[in-house]
Design a protein that fits this description.
By secondary structure, the protein is of the alpha+beta class. The protein folds into 2 domains: 1-55, no CATH class; 56-141, no CATH class. Helices cover 29% and strands 22% of the residues. A 3-stranded antiparallel sheet has the order 5-6-7. It has a two-stranded antiparallel ribbon with strand order 1-2. The longest helix has 21 residues, at 109-129. The radius of gyration is 18 Å and the shape is globular.
Length: 143
């Protein structure tokens, strides 16, 4: 990333994590006042007049109403007080889908079981992503 001032261009350094790093996994420059990365600024910046501009973690280990899985971390949606898991949040707001697990040669039986569980979860997410209720409007309160 480059920044140009007074006719000089230089590489912009990223030194801090975005306030929403838990979801976007982006870094921000040291002189960024709102501590939001480019994507988060355009999605959730104060100019959007959303109830919140940073992600709030609801709880550790909770049920996600969209994918219907018990997930490690759930977060509040940006427009209301309902929550979803990080995977669903990333898909809704950033378009980032759960990646297909990689098959490796020389699996041990334990590794094969874990791979099959991850593959089953990935297939479930693919079905969930195509559901009508899966969009930026909360299906619980329609915000």
């Amino acid at each position: 990333m480059y920044e140009c001032k007074d006719g000089l261009c230089y590489i912009k350094s990223y030194v801090k994590e975005c306030k929403n790093f838990i979801a976007c996994e982006n870094k921000v420059s040291d002189n960024n006042d709102d501590e939001l990365c480019f994507e988060c600024y355009h999605m959730f910046g104060k100019w959007r007049n959303k109830p919140r501009n940073s992600i709030s973690v609801k709880s550790q280990r909770d049920f996600c109403p969209l994918c219907e899985e018990n997930e490690e971390i759930t977060v509040y949606r940006m427009d209301c007080d309902h929550h979803v898991c990080l995977n669903c949040f990333r898909k809704i707001y950033f378009g980032i889908e759960v990646s297909k697990p990689k098959f490796k040669i020389n699996f041990t039986p334990e590794m094969l079981n874990e791979y099959n569980e991850q593959l089953e979860k990935w297939n479930k997410f693919r079905r969930v992503y195509n559901m009508e209720k899966f969009n930026s409007r909360c299906f619980e309160c329609n915000n």
